[in-house]
Amino acid sequence: MLLLNKYKLIHNKINKLSNNITLIAVSKTFSLGYIKPLVDFGHLHYGENKVQEAIQKWSEVIAINKDIKLHMLGNVQSNKVESAVKIFSFIHSLSSEKIANSFANSEVKLNKQLKYFIQVNIGDEKNKNGIDILLASDFAKFCKIDLKLNILGLMCIPPINTSPDNFFSKLKTLNEECNLKELSMGMSSDFDIAIKFGATYVRIGSSIFGNRINIS
Predict the structure, then answer these.
(1) Does 214 map to a domain?
(2) Is the residue at 216 inside a domain?
(3) What tens digit of pLDDT does each residue of 182-197 get?
(4) What is the pLDDT of residues 91-146, one digit of tens each?
(5) In terms of residue numbers, what domain contains 139?
(6) Residue 14 CB neighbour total at 10 angstroms
(7) Per DSSP, what are the bridge partners of residue 46?
(8) CA-CA distances (angstroms) from residue 149 to 14, 16, 43, 141, 200?
(9) What is the DSSP letter of 158?
(10) How many domains, the chain?
(11) In this structure, is residue 12 part of a structural domain?
(12) Count of CB atoms within 10 A of residue 70's CB?
């Protein structure tokens, strides 16, 4: 009941800010048993960051409820791309031509089309994944035109311990320059700010599920 109460508080807060937001409940590392009250309540969008964990956790659930959509938030290794295409509906971490080509090939092989966000290294951080800001526009064109991938928009994770406003603003401007419609930005600590800057997909974990530890 506590989990549902926290979810409803977040959901209501988001609805007051905008009625055009997809709330991704970031369920990575939490067991299906822990998440199940939210599934039973009817929430449909969940975020994971490991392909194998998603397969083990969600395969049976998705077979029963095909409305549930899984969002891949972490990087996907080349040898995991085909498995990712099978289980996920959205990829939020596209950032290299090599992986983009792998996804395009797997889509053809499996006759399934996913929806993608291109992850941008908005803070130019050496230890963070994502494509360089200066390369994002050309990469988006390559993915859309050459590979025929369904690119929805851009995604970012701002540097920690800094105000996210400037970074969200930069991503919004870049998204418009790329002629993309959706924005994946905002987490538990800053989703309200992200929505003010045009986010349409927010990724909420700890505010719903609590601290990210393995709970059985």
Answers:
(1) no
(2) no
(3) 999 999 999 999 999 9
(4) 999 999 999 999 999 999 999 999 999 999 999 998 889 999 999 999 999 999 99
(5) 2-7+21-209
(6) 21
(7) 25, 70
(8) 29, 33, 27, 10, 19
(9) P
(10) 1
(11) no
(12) 24
- 30 in a structural domain: yes
Take residue 70 and report the two structure tokens written for it. Answer: 């899984």
Element (H, E) at 72: strand 69-72
CA angle at 26 for the pair 97 and 126, rounded to the nearest 5°? 45
> Which amino acid does the sequence have at 205?
G
Q: Helix H segments across the chain?
A: 2-17, 32-41, 51-64, 81-87, 97-110, 133-141, 165-177, 191-196, 206-209
pTM for this predicted structure: 0.96
Q: Reduced to 3 states, what is the DSSP secondary structure of residue 107? A: helix
Alpha-carbon span 59 to 56, nearest angstrom: 6
How far is the CA of 104 from the CAs of 52, 70, 110, in angstroms?
20, 18, 10
CATH number for the domain including 150? 3.20.20.10
